Amino acid sequence: QDITPRQRTMLAEEAGSTVARFHRASLQHRALYDKHIMVRWPTPDSPEIALLDLEGMRFVGLPSLAARRDLAQLHRRQAIWGDADWEVLLRSHAQAMQGQ
Hints:
This protein is an alpha+beta fold. Helix content is 50%, strand content 17%.
């Protein structure tokens, strides 16, 4: 299913905050690829995200370490977002990491 540029940006924002929930708990996914991000659109303006392939997830002790490794891996392997939307994902992640 094709999504609009606006929906792609909303997806980046939701993905950033969803992944940050794991990282705030010092959990690292360890295999975070775009194919592990499942999306449901109950309405055109509200993506719901679930992460798959959690069996490799590990407690790493430091939220920043978990985030750095997972986000670097996702950035290398993803084919969803361009540079502008990737920045949205990173901002959303950073805000969620601070509890905002």
